[in-house]
Structures are given as structure tokens and as C-alpha cells.
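Hello, quick one for you while I still have it in my head. Could you read through the record and tell me how the C-alpha cells relate to the sequence? No rush at all, and the record is pasted right below.
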Amino acid sequence: MEANQLTSNPLNEQQLLMLRLLKNPLPEASFTQIRQLAVKLLANQLDETIENWENANGITEKDYEQLSNQHFRSASRKA
């Protein structure tokens, strides 16, 4: 990611706080651990969002099973 992509929008208070916390370089293992924790947190939030959407729309395991048995390819064109 280029630097200008990181600074195109003003940073919010949480982003500024994270930058202050990480002002000094960390050992690579520590930085990797922080990244893994952030990814895990975001994945959990995504799972929760999807689960809420499924519940709100009545989506069940059976719906996914039915979709997995269908094909979505368009018919081939023969000249």
C-alpha cells in the first residue's frame, strides 16, 4: 500500500492512538502477533455480521446446501 493511500483521509482518534502506540519499531514477532490479533478481531466481527444477516433473512444451513448443489455457469455458445 502506498503512503498517499494511507494519508488521503484524515485519521480518526483511534487510528492516531494506534500510531502513537506503535511509534517505536517492535520486534518482528511482536508485530506479527499484533497483526494476527487484529485479523482475528476483524474476522470475528465479520462472522457476527454475517450471522446477524442470516438470522434477519431466515438463511439456514439448508439454503447453503441447496446453493452448493446448483451450478451457475452460463450455457456455452456453440458457433
Remarks:
- Residues 26-68 form one domain.
- The mean pLDDT is 89.
